[in-house]
Structure formats: C-alpha cells, structure tokens
Amino acid sequence: MTDTQDRADIRRGCLVGAGFFARNHMQSWRDLGPEGVRIAGVCDLDGAKARAMAQEFGAEPFDDPLAMLDALRPDFVDIATTPPSHRALVELCAPRAGLVICQKPLAEDPEDARAMVAACDRAGARLVVHENFRWQRPFMRIQELLRSGTIGTPRFGRISYRHGFDVYAPQPYLLTFRRLAILDVGVHLFDLARLLMGEAVAITCETQRRNPRVAGEDAFTALTAHVGGGVCVTDSSFHTRLHPEPFPQTLATLEGDDGTLELREGFRLVIHDATGRREEDVEPAVPAWGEKPWHIVQDSVRNFERHALAVLRGEAEPQPSGADNLKTLALALAAYDSAEQGRRVFL
Ligand SMILES: NC(=O)c1ccc[n+]([C@@H]2O[C@H](COP(=O)([O-])OP(=O)(O)OC[C@H]3O[C@@H](n4cnc5c(N)ncnc54)[C@H](O)[C@@H]3O)[C@@H](O)[C@H]2O)c1
Asked: What pTM was computed for the model?
C-alpha cells in the first residue's frame, strides 16, 4: 500500500467533552493511529479544556460542537460528556457522522434514550454505546469460554463491584447525583449480566446510601431472572473497606451445567470443567500511557475503540448498539423502581 492509500483509509473522528475520562479515549485513539484512525477535533464548552487536550493530541480545538462538525465533517464522533448533554449531542451528530459513540449511561430517562436511537436510525448513522466493561480482558476471555461451551449454559451468575476508592475526587459531580451507583456502575454490571446470562426478564433490587457525603445510593444488590431460567446477583458498593483496595476490579462467578468460571481478585480466572480445575492470569498489560490500578479500564477503552473502528469499517456490529443499550437502561431504571416500591419488576 502507498502512503496515499494509507491516508485515504484513515477514519477521522471528533471528540466532544474533554474532561476526566476523555483522556483515556484520546490516549487510546492515539495508540490506534497505526490501525487507521485519527481524532481531528476536540470540543468542550470550556474552551480552555478543549485547547489543552487538542494541543496535546495534535487536534483542532472548538467550544461549539456544531462548528466543529461543520468545519471537520468527521466520519465519527466520540461523545465523552456527562449524561444530561447526551441526547442533544447525539441528535446533533446523527445527521453529520456515520458513527456516533456515546459514553454510558446513554441517558437518565428512557424517552431521551429512545429519541437518540431514533435520531440515529433516521439519519442512517450507527450508534454504539461506550460500554467498556464487556471489553475488559477478563470478560472478553469469559465470553470466549462461554462461546466454546466450557461450562455449558450459565444458570447462576454473580457480578460484583465493591470498593472504597475515592471516586469523588476525580468525578466530584457524582457526589450530587440523586441516582448514583446503579446509573454509574450498575449499567456496566447489567450490560454484563445480559451479555453473559441472556436477556433479563425480571429484577428485584435493594439500594443503600452508606456514605453520608453522597446524595444518592452508593450501594445496591440486585437479583435478575433471565430467559431460560438463569439467575444473577449483581452488587456494587462505593463504600467498602478492603485491603488491598480492589478498585476497579469486577469479580464474577458463572455456574453452568458443565462447569464454573470464577473471576477472582488479582485477575485470576479459575475454570472448573469436566477436565478438572485450571487457572489463567487475565490481567491486561499496562498501556505505555497508563498506570495501575486503572490499566484494566484503560486497556478496555482501547479494546472498545478498536471495536468501534471495526464497526466504522463495516466489519462488526455495534457492541452494544444503542438499541441494545435501551434494554440495559430499562433494567437499571427497573432496579430503582423495585427498590423504591419494594417489589419485583418485570421487564
Ligand atoms: N466507561 C467508563 O469506565 C467511565 C468511567 C468514568 C466516566 N465515564 C463516563 O464518562 C462521561 C464523562 O465523565 P467525566 O468524568 O469525564 O466528566 P467530566 O465532567 O470530567 O467531563 C465532561 C466534559 O464535558 C464537557 N461538556 C458538557 N457538555 C458539553 C457539551 N454540550 N458540549 C461540549 N462539551 C460539553 C464539560 O465541560 C466537561 O469538560 C460520563 O458519562 C461518565 O459516566 C465512563
């Protein structure tokens, strides 16, 4: 291939929202540069943030998303803002880019989320939700093992994310959210539960507010029933003291008819199957720009973005798509209904 052919093949993107988490997006896009992608523009309502990030990553800064889209006409837009802005931004981007990537949670309100999916459908744009837990290396390996039938059909699951790390230092806005743990982390865990156990049909949930500094629930315990009869316990706490601090590891157990998978602390995947017991190290490498303990998240952002690039090239279907993520959001909102009304909620 000549240089010119290489250049013609490069997918050009724009980033909206140059805040805390967007750094992981930008570092990962830069890592994927040799695979044919480049972020040409960075926009933030706070122009200083946009300029700083654009300068660091060799992009053009903007403080108005529409001006950026009109000026750069990107192949895709990567939205890394907080949820209240998601609907307006997706509706703005859908007619102006073939692929729209939106950070989780897609929305706080199901009507907004449905409008975003509809806007992309109308415009013929793909919508992929930045749901990176399923792209964490341990969960990619678990999906592979499930596909190969190692444990048979999963019948029982437990997905757990408990820690005492100060998530409020880098994300102070979380302190003010009336709906916290389920919308911030529960959506990740419910996405995994649906992916690994099959579609959820009912949920029962209890929430707790354990840290008096926060406005919303910072812990929840949910029980979901899945098509085919499987059940899954999903739990999270942001106020759990453990030594060593496990943040940001997700632990899981999946029991099937023919075996069990246990994702234990320290990225140890224990496989119990017909042949006996074996253990795999599923810890990802630390990206050159990354650091522990964030590497599990940083590596998953790059895995997710590699997937988004494959979607752009027409080589893969969005995982998860906006339409699929509507069901995860519905499950998260049903968890609140269950906790508030003290009853089992059917989806
Ligand atoms: N997937 C993950 O593992 C993960 C981890 C952390 C955060 N997140 C998600 O990332 C998103 C952003 O979180 P954050 O902590 O980086 O927030 P942040 O507040 O640090 O950054 C958001 C930025 O978006 C900008 N912004 C808001 N509305 C805008 C608009 N309409 N146009 C342009 N810029 C706008 C703000 O000025 C701010 O700089 C949230 O949805 C959060 O849930 C995901």
From this structure: 0.97
